[in-house]
Amino acid sequence: MKGILKLAYKLLVNDKAKFTALLIGITFAVFLMMFITSMFMGVLNHASATVVNVGAPVWVMDPSVQAITSSIGMPNYVLDAVRSIPGVKFAVPLYSGTALVKLHDGTYQAASVLGLDDTSLYGRPVLTAGKIENIYADNGFIVVDDAEYRKLESPRIGTTFELNDHRAVIVGVAKVTISGLFGLPTLYTTYYRAIQYIPNPRFTISYVLVHPKSSSDIPAIKRQVAALGYMALTKDEFIRKNAAFFVFQTGAGTNILIMTLISFIVGLSISGQTFYTFILENLERFGALKAIGTRNRQLVTMILFQASFTALTGYGLGVGLCTLLVYLAKLRLASYAAMITYPSLLVSFVMVVIIAAISSYFGVRRVLQIEPFDIFRG
After folding, report:
1. For a disulfide at 237, which of 14, 209, 219, 233, Cβ 3.0-4.6 Å?
2. 154: Cβ contacts below 8 Å, ≥ 6 apart
3. Total-model pTM
4. 224-227: long-range contacts at Cβ-Cβ below 8 A with a sequence spacing of 24 or more?
């Protein structure tokens, strides 16, 4: 068997033109599939930036909320009711909204504003400059130093600007785990300052952040919240809900699926046609092997080895090329969202296996139909 595989390898790589064409086709297909799915996974990851950065184990919200950005105000009694539920260690309000910031050059920039509970500041970011207690100072705001930081003219501690016709002062600079998706810089302040500075409807609590006494208390908390007419989701459930919204409600999932299928078809058509041509050009060699006693099973093994070797090599090259381009893009574009994940690698690998299987299927059929007599007669 070792000699058969060695012979199959030499037959494949000695035809440099066909081998190169096969590698290019599969590499290009893997690159496209990886690049598209990586972009999509990056978008889904950044879409849940607030959920990840705040980090609350349980989020209470209006049942109509579809994504973190579409918060619906809740009355104050919901906060009091949640705090009284057995198993709740503490619960605090969170404000989430958008405001217009007037910069020093006279232009306006929209910004996301998160209002933290005045007493605990639960969900506060990690500061790289300034002190967290300064958020209680008059007009105090903390700015997040992320990909959108420059849109606020890279403010430092002491920088002042107008926010919805109110004076705002930067008292701290923070870093977060994930930057936002929608190109808006992020500001943190206290809950009551946020609802004073930003026009709001009657109800101002966007979310209630709950810290349970233990994870075993979460199911009971969710039932009690549902009895109030509201919805409680764990952090992971809320992230999945955000992802489902972008996949099924925005059309992004359908577009990504179409582009992935197009990449698959491109790779299949190029590699399949090239591999089948390679088999046709080597029919005499396969016929000669059959004439000297090589079994059909061994010929099939040769073809499967050639298809698998080419597919896996192209897969590695495609993943490497995609990784390199994503790395270079992130060096130049701070807001670039693409990220290579295990699901992206798995999807691309499965597609490559299917390409190799289909390509080898037609090659195997053709080789098994060979009659040594026909080869030598020709």
Report:
1. 233
2. none
3. 0.76
4. 224/85, 225/60, 225/82, 225/85
